[in-house]
Amino acid sequence: MPALLRVICYAALLAAAVSSASPPPQAAGPNCPTKCGDVDILYPFGIGPGCSLPGFKLTCDTTTNPPSLLTGNVKVVNITLETAQMVAYTFLTYTCSFPVSKNESIRTTKDMALKLDSPLVLSPADNVFTAVGCSSIAVLQGRGRGRGRSRRYNRSEYLTGCITSCGSVNDTGEDGTPCRGHGCCEAPLTPGLSQVSLTWNKGFRRVTDNWCQYAFIAAKGWYKYSKKDLIGNKTLADRLGPSNVIPVVLDWAIRNGSCPSTPSGGDMESVPYGACISTHSNCVNASSGTLGYFCNCSRGYAGNPYILNGCTNINECERKDLFPCSGGTCLDEIGDYECRCHFGRRGDGKSPNGCEAIISTTAVAVIGTISAMALLAVLVIFLHTKREKRKLRDHFNKNGGQLLKSIKIEIFTKEKLDHVTENYRYIVGKGAFGEVYKGTIGDNARVAVKRSIAINEDRQKDFANEITIQSKISHRNLVQLLGCCLETKVPMLVYEFVPRGSLYDVLHRKRDALPLQTRLDIAINSADALAYMHSQASENVVLHGDVKSGNILLDDEFVPKVSDFGTSRLMSIDKDHTNWVIGDSSYIDPVYMKTGLLTEKSDVYSFGIVLLEIITRKKARYDGNNSLPINYVKASMDWKTKEMYDAEIVASGLEEDVKCLEEVGLVAIQCLADEVNERPTMTEVGEKLKMCKYQWLQSYGQARGICP
């Protein structure tokens, strides 16, 4: 029955805002039933002692399936607090004249009497009295509750009815037409009816094909006229089913008073009254022309005003069907909401028109054209972006991305590195292999991002293996690899940032003061780092391949960190060499240059030149027979090495300092031996340098009468 559904849905819609603000209201006592069958029992109604206000007691008939909620003998379908209404079922009345012979018929009549409990009256606004048939005279008698306070003036008698006329069923209106006397008629209800009875006038005359006449009180809109209801015996009754129930709307109220006048200058919503005990509730005088009142939650609140703190703030923005905000942004407030119009719109977003556009139709057309062009541009950009993403994915896979996912190293996207380096804004180093940029990640942690210029195509497939090895290398004097980016043709590496720069910068550009002990510490710690790479880093031998002062970085305390071993070569223990020639020509091992065979001793040779830079502060230029290693070896043979030492050390005039420089120089000459097998290992180099420092400290202390 569509009209019944509309009535129930209407009641549910009014109550829907409650669910977004608070759980369903509870009855007065913790043991009071809150449901009977499919119907929620909302206080002030209730079942059992202490569960309802006086006169609002209901019963639950558990003999039916599902159980039925009753007020007296009337079945309750729905209770609504907001409108103080109840949907209930009444019954169909009829009188039928069924022919048994040509001159004889049997008449059956079913009347209805309805008596409602004290809080309830029939709603005159939502119900209508209806009669269906031809030549029907239906009569409604009733008694109501007036607005007087005495019993004498609180009840009134009422009589109404309506008449239908039609010669035959064909004389009536079409199906669905309003009931205006042809086939069916309607009569309004007077306010305050609490008792009614439906009867038939004895002058009823049967019309051909029309055996039955019907009368009922129903919710407005429930009955839709149909000619079929006039034909046959009890056709409308059969269509309703065995129960013959019809929905009606009942108004209810608390009948022992009315709302007080609003205090002068006061706010009625903030003044509790009678049964309206919740804060943010207000009193509403009963409709239907009767004495009494009911309670509502104040605007912006929902819930049950008949229980303590039953009215709670609702979020109007979640119920746009009830609280419109068209063309704007909805902002919830305590007890209300705000609708701020979007950019380019103005007006009242809460009104039916909502926020209206400021721009004219012509401007909209222009904008539409521009938007179409922009959409085309977006499509082009989208296709380009898609192609670039495919290219990034191809580079990622080609550079061994799938393998690197399994190790504990961060894999950066190209987009993230662009952000980290501010689009490669700050360059901090540049060499034959590429450029190094300063960046920031996390909580302002500085990093160095190396972007190589090119990579050997034959070695590209081994890149992932190299990164895997480097990620496992951990030494205080080696720059820590933090992550990599594989979405570029040439992979980029992310290292910890070492702030002071390279040893080359300190020696030859900044020319910072470098005491002898600091130089010895730089040499010793750098040697330890290379020795760790050669012998202890992993199951593979890790060769640097490009040892030079520019690849030894210094922190703020001049602690060295060997870097750029991302270009180093890996070789298995059972192999002797690799034939990929790399490195700076000023530091490169001559044997490696001739044979292409890179070994640990190649790193030793290059480190020997670094030692000469440390003690002489001269650049390691390669210029035929005029180079730092050649000049130093020649000076050593002529006993003139003192002339090559850094003046900063020699100027001290301390013989023990010069002696220490000579010892370090001898270690450097051993590293530079032409015969590879005559060169010491990096472990041996480190030990020799530590001995030099120990002897220097010992002689330094003796000269000053202190212990080393």
TrEMBL record:
Which GO molecular function entries does the Swiss-Prot or TrEMBL record give? ATP binding; calcium ion binding; polysaccharide binding; protein serine/threonine kinase activity
Signal peptide span? 1-20
Q: How does it sit in the membrane?
A: Single-pass type I membrane protein
Q: Where is the Protein kinase domain?
A: 422-697
Q: Which InterPro entries match?
A: EGF, EGF-like_Ca-bd_dom, EGF-type_Asp/Asn_hydroxyl_site, EGF_Ca-bd_CS, Growth_fac_rcpt_cys_sf, Kinase-like_dom_sf, Prot_kinase_dom, Protein_kinase_ATP_BS
- All copies of domain EGF-like, residue ranges: 313-356
Q: Name one GO cellular component term.
A: plasma membrane
Q: Which Pfam families match?
A: GUB_WAK_bind, PK_Tyr_Ser-Thr
Primary localization: membrane
**Where is ATP annotated to bind?**
K450
Q: Where in the cell is it found?
A: Membrane
What protein name applies here? Protein kinase domain-containing protein
